[in-house]
Every structure is written in structure tokens, then in C-alpha cells.
Amino acid sequence: MGKRVSTHHVVYFSTLRKKKMTYTTCYTILCRKAGLQCITIKGHVKAASYEPGDTTVPETTWCAVYVEMGWQIVHPFWVCRALFGHKLGGWIKVEKDGKTMRQTEKASHGVARNTFTDRYFMPNPEEFIYECCAIEKDWQLVSPQSCVSSVDEFIQKAYLFPPFFGVGFTLVSDPKCVLHSKEGFCKVEMKARTANAHMIVLKYELFQKEIDSDSYSIFNTEGNVARMVFNSRAAEMFTFDIRFPETGVYKLVIYGGPYKSAALRLCEFKLICDQEMKDRNLLPIECDEIGWGPGPVSVEAGLLMPSKPSGLIPVNENDRKTEVKFQLRDMKEQYTAVVHGEVDGRRKQLEDENIEIKKNKHLHQIIIIINIPGKGEYGLSIQHKESRSRDKQGKNVCNYLVSTLAYKPERANVKNAKQKLKDAVAANMEPRRWKEQIDEILKCIERCKKEKVPDTDDEIIAATAMVWFLTCKDRLRDCILRRNLHVIRKTLLIVSQYKNQDALTKEIKGVKELEEDIVALRGFARQVPKLEEANKEIVALKHAPYEVHNTFKALLVLLGDTEQNLENWPDIQSKMKASTHTAETSVLGKMRRIQRQEISQDRLEKAVNILHRFKEDDVRKVNGDAHSFYIWIENVINVHDIKQQDSQTPENA
């Protein structure tokens, strides 16, 4: 029976190879042979020959197989075969990640190859429907609100690829594949998952339809750079705002993925501009590959928790002044900034007097103050001067668009609510009042939301970031105060998942050192029961040798007694006798709880000086029980001694 099934497989695959059977038919037969329910679905597909704006799409087939999770989609052909290098042609690439391009895209049929693409094996139907849409609604396998009622509706849906969903994006702007400009502008907005948004980098390519390119004179200007696409980010929101200096048909292709990983094609849009922008210029600076707004590159450079999370800073033309703050990972790092803008009809770098950089050592912050000369748009470029780099100007790590044209007056209630929120965030409260500050910030956030301030507002984003920062910082402070190993480890686990943990480097280091101390001292606490018998022998001594007397004097000083009260052996003997009881104040009890005590440097030095009046070997020769206590004291002192030495390293001195 097994051989007969194997023979059938060979026949099926041979028929498939000769193109006398489709992949869908083959897979359906194999599933049914295996006892699985499988049906063939007929529908429309946005295949390799498709591009946004097409008015028709071809029909094709795929499968649905019934498993324990219910009906699941499988596209056998796309699982097994893929087309590489296919290009439709007819477009000219005019801009790529802020750089001028004038590259004709030549048509290419590409090469079909055998492969295994698992994303088309049981994909999420809610995502699959952007590429393939079943004619029968029941076999779309989506929720009622996602159901596509006609082929025209399917054609108009945004052209989103599987990596778009794999990275964790949702489309916030108009969910259509063809977008029409408004007053010379087009916008695409996407939202990423909160958990990984801070590590995502988006790139783009802007194409112009070849038939329109000859009339597009802006790219023929000598020395001109393409500055049409405002690729900006703000927390989980990513925005592509395209400005058109001339009418035409364009195509925007967006790529993305985690920082320093391969950028995958996420989505594609056709942009139709029938009216060029007015009273606006192209963007004031070219941003290369990092785009606008703080992101993974600025974090890597040590700029954390920006007060302006968005790449766009609207400024009232009457004020003309604004500032950007960052928490610094390292105060020793050097940063510079320049501002570009149009002055008297010419784009140029503004004078140094238009920008000021200050550092606040107490708050571990850098403040960049910008003073723009007048109405218009200005590009703020922040550079990081790496210590080992020979580049005097530094590496561009963050860009902002400072614009009076984007400024919109706010209602008095909104303005007041946002100002109170800014004041709550900026409040420099002492550590014991951090919880109070957190509560005040949260109240101000709620007040802003009641005034319909959106979650994407810069002040809301910055305030939310400050809440997390203060919460983590307060937890770390609590660890130092409580000295509880369970609390410490739980807190370190929570903080390890905090995206701005680099802003708490000093605090985290302190708590980790405390954890090491407690673990070491816990070992000494476990030694205490073994010392109980030795203690019984010690308290029985009527006249203790001075080596023994001195050892226990060092022990009691270490635990908080004064040397003056321990000159006579009977005084020490009475204290050690109390140790045979279980009272919390007993010496052995204090030794068990040694990890909870904060041994001061002064007390530590006094205990060391007393103990080392005799060598370990001297004590061992006189009394073995006293020698056991001597070793215990020495170990505790060594742990604290190491801690004190570490604190005097050059970077902490």
C-alpha cells in the first residue's frame, strides 16, 4: 500500500513538472489522499504584473484546508515558486532616501525559481486579502468588517506586502492604493507596534511616470537635490509627507525593518498630483538615510528620551524660538548642530547665533535652542562627534523640520492643559517625590485627552516617556532602600525591557552591584548556624586570650557597637551570651541579616583595624572557635572592601 502511494506521488509531481496540472490541483489531491478536507478557491490576485492604479486584475486559484484550527489558506504556487528581478518599467526613480536620482527603471520579465515561502502557508486571512481575494465572500475567511464585496473594492485596496504585517504595521491613512494630492501634498501614515517601533527604520523610493518626466524641470536644475519626501517618525507613528513642485504621476515604494537589518518591501502607492504646492519650497536639508525625527541612529549616538519625538516642530512665527532636549547616556559625548533654511530666496546654513547648545549635568540632559530668523521652514541637523572618528563635523544622527507654516493656533483650554503637562514633566523633584510627580503627569495627560489632544501629540508622547523613565528610576531607588534580593531581580528584569534603559546606566549599575553584594553576604548568613556551637564554647571562657578578645571586639564593632564599650571580656561575653537566644537583637541574628545592613565606610575601617591587630594564623593557634569567627569577619570585610575599591575607578572618581 505504501509503495502505491509513493508511485502516485511520483506521477503527480511528474504531471506538475510537465505543466499538465496546477500546483493548486496537486496540493488538493495530496491533502485528500492524506484524509484532509481541502477545497479549491477561485479569486482575484495582485500578481507580479500588477501595480497600483491598474483597473483589472487576473483570476487564479489557491486552497483552503481544514485542520484542527479550522479552515486555513494555502497558496501552493506561491509557496513553491517565486519570481525574482521582475520590473514593469515605465518609471524614472527621482529620489531615494533623500538623495537625488534620475534612474530609468527598465522592464524585466525576471526569473521564476523553486523556493519555499512559508508566509503563504496558512497566512492570516486578514493580511492575505490584500494580495488575493476570493470571489465567494465566505471563502475570504475574514471578519465581516474586512470582507471585500467586489473586485473593484479589491483593486482599490492598499497594496500591502506580507512584511508590512510581519514588522507589525497598520495603515492609518487612506487605505487606498491610489492617492490624490491635496494642494500639492500627499500623505501616508503607518503605525507600528509599541514594543518594537523604536527599533524600526523606514526607507523609500520615489518614481515619476516616464511620460511626465520630460516636463519635470526641477530635476534638471544644476546642483539641485531631491527634497520632496518628508520621511518622519514620532514614537509608533511613521509619516511620509510628499510635496510636489509640479503635477504628474508618481509611485512611492516604502521599505523597512529593524535597524541594521535588511529593508524589506512593505507597501506601494500610486500618487496623482494635479495641482502643485503653493507657498512652500522643497525641504531645507537632505536627510540621507536617517529621515526626520529621533530614531535608532540617535539612540545609538546616546541621545535618549527626546522632548520633541516628532520630526516636525511647529513654531509660532511671533516666538521664533524653540528647544529640543535629550537625556544623555554619557555626558562626555560631544554633539554639534546646524540650521539650514531659505533666507532672501537662497537656501543656506544659518549663523551660529541662531543655535545654542547647553548641557545640564544635574539632569543629565543636552538642550539645543533654535532661534529662527523669520517665517518659513528650517532644517535642524544634529551631529555626533565620535571620539575615534577623524570626521571633524561628526555623523548626522537626527534631523528636525522647524516650521512656522505648520503651526496651528490652539484653543486656550488646550494650550493651558499642554503647558501644565510640560511643567509637570520638567519639574525637578527630589527622589522621594518621584511618585508624586508621576501622578501629576498622569493627571495632566488625562486633562489633555479631555481637551481632545491626540495621543500622537509631541507633549503626550514625551510625557508618557517621562512616566516610564521616572517609574523605572523610582523602582531602582526602591531596590537600594529595601535591599531585597527578590525585589532587585524583579526590577532588573523589568528595566531590561525598558527601551530607554541607557538613560539609567548609573542607577542600574548601582543596583547590580548591590545584588552581587547581597548574594555574597547571603553566603555568610548561611554560615551562621555552623558558628552557633563555636559561640557556645566562646561564651564559656572565663578568661579569653587577647587574640580571642580582639576578634570578637572586631565582630561587634562591625555589627554596630563602639570599641569603648568592649574593652572588658565580660562585656563581650554578655553580648555573645545573648546570641544563644533567637531575639532579633542577638549578635547571631544580626549576622544572619547582614545583607540588610548598610555597613558604613567608617565602621568598616574600624573593624578592619581592630581585626588585623592579629594575623589569622595567630588566632587559629590560640582558639579554633575564634578562628571560625575571624574567617567570617574577614570575608564580609573583603566583599565591602572590593565594593569600595570599585567605586574609586577613574570614571567614577
Write up what this structure looks like.
By secondary structure, the protein is an alpha+beta fold. It has four domains: 35-273, no CATH class; 300-403, Immunoglobulin-like; 412-482; 511-646, Histone Acetyltransferase, Chain A, CATH 1.20.920.60. The chain is 35% helix and 25% strand. Strands 5, 6, 9, 11, 13, 16 and 17 form a seven-stranded mixed β-sheet that branches. Strands 19-26-25-21-22 form a five-stranded mixed β-sheet, with no helix packed on it. A hairpin with a 5-residue loop joins strand 16 (248-258) and strand 17 (264-273). Helix 9 packs parallel to helix 11, helix 11 (458-482) packs antiparallel against helix 12 (485-496) and helix 14 (546-558) packs antiparallel against helix 17 (601-611). The chain is extended. Mean pLDDT is 86; it is low at 1-5, 215-225 and 642-653.
